Amino acid sequence: MTMIERAWNRKAGWLLLLWPLSVQFRLIARIRREFLQRRTRPVAGSPAIVVVGNLTVGGTGKTPALIGLVEFLRGKGLRPGIISRGYGGQHGDYPLIVKPDTPSAAAGDEPVLIARVADCPVVVDPNRLRALNCLLAEHKVDVVLSDDGLQHYRLPRDVEICVVDGQRLFGNGMCLPAGPLREPVSRLESVDFILINGESSESLPQLADAARLEMRPRYLINMSNGEKRPFGGAPFKIGNTIQAVAAIGNPERFYNTLESLPYPLKKFSFPDHHMFQAEDFTTAGVDQHQPIVMTEKDAVKCEDFAGSNFWYLESKVELPENFLLSIYEKIMAVERLNDKSEK
């Protein structure tokens, strides 16, 4: 977490000095949204488009929410496809169709993880509209889900889902650069669904009707040989120290989960979406004789050099049934999807 992010979360008083810039940012964001939304409309005959995004800078849990939604929709007989910006990836030729074995350095960590776990078409492009066109040209899908993109107003959308980090919420409530918000909290009034990742640290009226996402830890999986150990009890030898390595938006949630195990915990935090190299672990002082545990998203970036002490935590996404059914009904209510299904 950077110094400015820590200040946002602590609601540091000196951030008021940046308030005039925050007001300008908020005004520009509103004008841009109104202008682009007038120009972008869903194309007749195309699948329903669902945007899963957030209001704040940093991770909120969009990826597990997306994976859970894909699994549900596929169970309903739909064929979902996913588009993503591919944050952190560097590829010279977009759009990029992501396969389970696509290097995370090219596509980004989240799209590779989604392609593996969700088992559906994934296309990456910083221009999401171009990614959408590629997805529709290359794959037959019934519904398109955009990984992030709530503020990418060139992308048409039928359903908007805003994911909120229950621990950090909205920081100090101000827009960039004085706070972490890409848009004001009032933007929640116009989205279709709000989803809180974990238990909310505060009771806010804007979140009164929000659904709740839960991540249930299930297994620790060895990255070298695939060994799977149930999460809980004492999966490692007593006397070991767990070295928790994270390059995610809110690593404290991950660390808190690991602290439920009966081992001392050493934390090694890296910037969000950091592309790991083997030397990162040596430079940070990670002990190669003690277990290293990371998230599944970070693990896809370490496969080429992971040793026998590298493990990742596999978790199960849990979303409320009424939340999923409401989204399904909203998708099926899209006129062009219904028309297509009747032909």
If you had to describe this structure to a student in words, what would you say it looks like?
- Strands 1, 2, 3, 4, 5, 6, 7, 8, 9, 10, 11, 12 and 13 form a 13-stranded mixed beta sheet that branches.
- The chain has two domains: 3-213 and 319-342, Rossmann fold (3-Layer(aba) Sandwich); 216-316, Rossmann fold, CATH 3.40.50.
- The N and C termini lie far apart (51 Å).
- It contains eleven helices and 13 strands.
- It is an alpha/beta fold and 343 residues long.
Characterize the largest beta sheet: strand count, sense, and whether it forms a barrel: 13 strands, mixed
Residue ranges: pLDDT <50 for 5 or more in a row? none
Helicity, in percent?
25-40%
What is the count of helical runs? 11
Domains (count) = 2
Task: Report the end-to-end length measured between terminal Cα atoms.
Answer: 51 Å
| Average of pLDDT | 92
Secondary structural class: alpha/beta
User: What percent of residues are in strands?
Assistant: 15-25%
